[in-house]
Amino acid sequence: MSPLRKRHQTTTSDLAPEVRKGRLRELRTELEQRSVDALLTLSLPHIRYLSGFSGSNGLCVVTGRRALIVTDGRYTEQVREESSGFAVRISRDSLVDELPKSSILSGISRIAIEHAVMPVAIFARLQKLFPRKKFVPSAGIVESLASVKHESEIAHIRAAAAITDAVFREMLDVVREGMTESEVAAELTYRQRRRGSEGDAFEPIVAAGEHAALPHAHASNRPLRNGDLVVLDFGCRVRGYHSDLTRTIALGRPSSELRKVYGVVRDAQQRALEHCAVALPARALDAVARTHIRRAGFGKFFPHSLGHGLGLQIHEEPRISARSTATLAAGNVVTIEPGVYVPGLGGVRIEDDVVLRTSGPEILTHAPKDLIVL
Question: Residue 4 domain-assigned?
Answer without folding.
Answer: no
